Each structure stands twice: as structure tokens, then as C-alpha cells.
Amino acid sequence: MSDKKQESLRQAALSYHEFPKPGKLEIRATKPMANGRDLARAYSPGVAEASIEIRDNPETASKYTARGNLVAVISNGSAVLGLGNIGALASKPVMEGKAVLFKKFANIDCFDIEVNESDPEKLADIVCALEPTFGAVNLEDIKAPDCFIVEKLCRERMNIPVFHDDQHGTAIVVGAAAKNALLVAGKKIEDIKVVSTGGGAAGIACLNMLLKLGLRRENVWLCDVHGVVYEGRTTDMNPQKAAYAQNTDKRTLDDVIDGADLFLGLSGPNVLKPEMVKRMAKRPIIFALANPNPEIMPDVAREVAPDAIIATGRSDFPNQVNNVLCFPFIFRGALDVGATEINDAMQIACIDGIAELARATTSAEAAAAYQGETMNFGADYLIPKPFDPRLSGIVSSAVAQAAMESGVAKRPIEDIEAYRETLDHAVFKSAMLMRPVFDAASKQSRTIAFAEGEDERVLRAAQAILEETSEKPVLIGRPDVISQRCERMGLTIRPERDFAIVNPENDPRYRDYWGTYHDIMARRGVTPDLAKAIMRTNTTAIAAVMVHRGEADSMICGTFGEYRWHLNYIEQVLCDPAQHAQGALSLMILEDGPLFIADTHVHTTPTPEQITQSVLGAARHVRRFGLEPKIALCARSQFGSMQGDTGQRLRDAMAQLDLMDLDFQYEGEMNIDAALDPELRARVMPQNRMSGVANVLIFAHADAASGVRNILKMRAGGLEVGPILMGLRNQAHIVTPSITARGLLNMAAIAGVPVTNYG
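Request: output the structure for the sequence above.
Response:
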């Protein structure tokens, strides 16, 4: 890498840490602090009540304080990454980063604590004195053998989990990778020879974990900077190394590498030479984990051993051994059951969960985060990617279960499956709200036609539909293209075997399809030749014809192209005087709850009658999610304050609604802030007939509705479910090009419910 490029990367990293505010963490209040009443509850005198409760029953600390979800990341900076003993202060950016990972991946709050103390016993004293503050402790970047002393003392004296991630986190991820690597190589752990370089905390912990998984002690050869660890050696020895001393006259790595099945490197660059790799066993497993430069570069190893299974600590090669696969989730499970320690059973459960997830079908979210990478289980995909959202549910629940079974859980969870669902809900923001819809969809098996069947997101959604629902997807697209893409993406589904295909280029139903379309459109200027051309090229029209003919119950389109273009063909085929598109409803899932918005796409400037239909349709669909509709008709006019067109159309719609016997709340016209702030609304209109916060916003112009939808999505972190096309009896839905595979799965569940169930 050129000096100029290196300096550019350096400056980019420094800017990341400096802007927009220094550091990577901040503290935010979880309770309101808006008036004297709030102050009296948060501090004196109200805070005394919580203190008394905790004094009388210490276990209630996790109920009345943040302690039950608070981890301390503690270091003295004596062994930081590849930087060595840089001191406590210089370690702070690393510890802040660790805290951020806890929050990002497992929603665990963290304080990073950097301590100027090199004496391990004194450091242990400091850590132990912090027990009242934290639910668990993550020790980080403490040099060996001091780290062993600190952890041992803390675990003996503290009644909360203490986990040295450099040791056990690395060991867990290595254990998962090794388990799967041996499976790929066709070898058994009890039969293999292991040669390891690096006698530090991580290296020793990895070997200890492999022994727990079945590795035989006599088959382990440990080397450090001084060579082989052998019986009688006195140079740079400690009890942890001595446990792996061999009775041998061999003294170097080169002496012991012959026939090794697994090389485990946690040492330094270029330690393992190509000629050594040549002398390893067939199908060697090489874990070259030194950072940033491994013991041997993967391309160099493959030149002499093309069949080698290789892992590194780097992100630019397959199989990155990254502790983030472990520590957020093992702490999540431990905290949630009130574990007093993180024991062997919990660590092995973590290994099993990580390993099993790698063997499962790749999640759509992980694929989206690592576009262009092949994630099919095998030599180049031994462990899952850190951004696989399934890690939380699978690994944390496995750890929690192991904690309960091993007797270290103070707050056992009665329903582990419900707990796992809760974890999934925290990751998949739509999961909880979508549950009633999925439950309703599971009661009947409906056929859903996907117009853009070759799209990667559609294929991943189809896989999920077949795994998680009773629906039957039909994909419109070329079978060979779909097969190739399924194989490339590591999907197990295949055309015709798992789902039906409509091939626009060659389908036996082609004559029937263009004939049906021509019958519908013959008096609207469509000739037979045009009908034939449309049925060869327009997959949206094909899907609509399938629904019209009863070959599909519903259709989904719109992963590319403009909404109105798709709607045109749907209206041609599926609309009649008794059935027409009433509006598009988007569910935005926000941090403080759901918010529905309409009409975002169908009517640009809806009439009062169309607004009324949108209100009725929105109320019907909101109830599908187990919610009671509270509908606000929104404009810049507020209860007649302005006489413009927009306000008048909403007032006219209100008049129409008032003539109906409706069983839900609606009010308007009003500003958006009045809709979302009941106190403000009461000041503006004391006699208003809506209670609480509105959960549906209806607009009189599509530009306003669409603008609010996109702002919430791009700036407020809103997750969209929809758009839901209202008025077509759930026969068709048009998504937008930004939709994800998870979004398509949600829309399939919505399409999978017969309208009789909610209409």
C-alpha cells in the first residue's frame, strides 16, 4: 500500500473518531425530564423509594436500575490489539469500540473503564469493587499471564459473570470454526494433530476449548517465540503453558509441523512457511489468526495446498474469526437469566449455536450486508457473518438455556421459545407487529405470484416463505436464470421442485394468457399482436392475468420500475366497477411504535370520496396488526383555520365519515404535530374526539404522504411494511424498489390472508 493511501486511510479513521462529536458513545436518558414532577421522581424524594426496595431486596436492582443490562468493559491497556502495552488511556478508543459492538449487536449498555494499574491483584481488587454497578464484566486487552490472575480472582469473588474476551471469546469462535472445518474436511477432533503458535491468553484458551470439544492432550504441540513448549523448559514459562509441555527433543515449529491436521496461529506474521504447509496432513486446516498480518497469507498457503481450509483474523479473506460473533450474545443470554457466571456449558452452547447457524441457509439481511460474497457452507464459509441478525436469537437463547440447565441462572426463563422470539423481535423490527398477520396467513395456504421472480430479494423471500409459512410462491422468470442464482446465493430451493415457475419465454399457458388479456382489453385498443407481446415481456401483466384466472390468489410486483406503471396493468386486469384501488397504506415501524401513512401512491390529489375510502381501508388493515385505529386527517389547515383546497377536501371527507356508523376514532383536519401530541391537540381543539396519539395519518396529497414516509424511513430509522394496496381484496400489492427480502416476506404474509378474514 502506498504511503499516500495509507495516510488517507489514517486520516479517515481519525475523522471517524472525532466527528460529529468526539468518541463513539454518549449517554441518553430513558425517562422523561420535562417538569418538576419528573425531577421529583427521578431524584429526591422519589428516588428513595427505589433505593429502599433495593436495600431490602438486592435482586430488585435489575428491576429499578439499568444494572441488569449494563456491562463494564475493563482494560489496563497492557495488550491492546497488535499494539502491545500502550497504556490505559490509549486503549480507550478500543474499549469504546467494544462498548459500541455490545449495543449494536445485542442492545447491551456498556461503560468502558480504563484503569492505570499494572499489578494484576490490585487490578482485580478494583474490578471487584465495581460489582454493585454492573450486571457483568468483560475484561479486555490485559497481557498474559496477568489476565489469568485477574480473571481467576474476579470469578472467585464476584457473583456476576466475568468474561475475558481475548481468551474465551476467541476460543469460542475458533471452536465453532474448527467444528465446521473438521466437518468439511471429513476428520474427527479426537484423531487430529494440532500445532499451535502463540502461548498468550488467546492461544492457551483456544487449546483449552478444543480439549473440551474432544481434542486429545497428547496430540497438541504448542510453540511460542522461544520454540516448542517441552517438559523441563524454563524460559518464559507459566503454569498455563506448562500444561501443554511435551516430552520431546523437538525444539522448533519446523520440527513438529509434519502431519499436522490443524495449525492454530495466534502469534505473528509469516511464522508458518510454505514448505511447512507442504508437510501438513491432507486437507490441512490453517487458522492463521495474527492481526493484521497472519502467520501465512491464504494465497501463499493455497499455492502449496490447494485443498487447505483457511481462516484468518482479517475481513478481506473468507472465514474471519471475529469475537463479535460471540461476546454480545453470550452476555445477552447470561444477563437475561441473571447468571452468576459464564461457565463451560454456556460457552459450548455458544459454539454449537454459531456452528449450526453457518450450516443453515444464509439470511437475506446478511446477504444484503455482504453483497458480492458467496455464503454457502463449506471451506470458504465456516462461520456466519457478524451482521447475520439470527445470531441474537439462536446464540443468546442457547446460552440462556445452558445457564439454566447448569444451575447458574438466578432468573430462569419459563418459555425459552418465547424468549427467542423476543430476541428476534429486537433484531427484526417488524416481527412483533407482523405476528398476527403471520398467524392469520398460516391458517390457509394461498398461492402468491411474484412478478419479478429472477430478483435476488424475491428468491430469498421465496426461501423464507417456504421455511416459515404455508404459502406457495409462484415465480415469473426464466428457470435457468433462477436456478443459477439460487445456487450462487446458497439457497436450497430450486424451480419446479420447490416452487412453480411461469417462463415468459416459453410457457405452455402462453396462448391462454394472451387470450385472456386480449378478451379483457380488446375494446380498449389492444390487438391480438399487442396482447401477445405484452404476455411475453410484461411480468406484471402476466401475474395479474394469473390472479384473474384463479391460478394465483394474489400477486406482488414492483421491485423495480415506477409504482403507477405497475398499477396501470393491475387496474386493467383486476379492477371493475365493484373493485378498484382505494389507496396505498405504508406501515412505518419506529422506535416509539408503529405509524401508518396513506395515500402514498395511488391518488395524487384524492377527492373527498377517495379520502373517505382510504380512511375506511386503513382502519380495516390496521386491525390486521392487532391495533385499534386512531386516524388523523392531516393538512397544513387545522380545524378549519385555512380555506385552501386541501383542507376543504379533508373537511368534506370528515362530513362523509360522520354520516357512517363507524367503530373507530377519526379526527381532522389537523397538523401532524397535533395528531401526534394529544396535549397540543387538546389546546387547539378542546372538544376533539380523539384520545391519545394517532397511529394513522391520512393526507390529501400524495406528495405529502410520500414525503413523510420517506423522511421517516431515511432520517428516523423507520422500517416500512408495505405499501399495502387497499381496495383490491388483497389480490395485488405493489412494493417499491427499496424493499428488502424481509420486506417481501412481510408482504407475502399480508397477501396470504384471505380478505374474508379481516374485511
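The CA atoms of residues 79 and 166 lie 10 Å apart.
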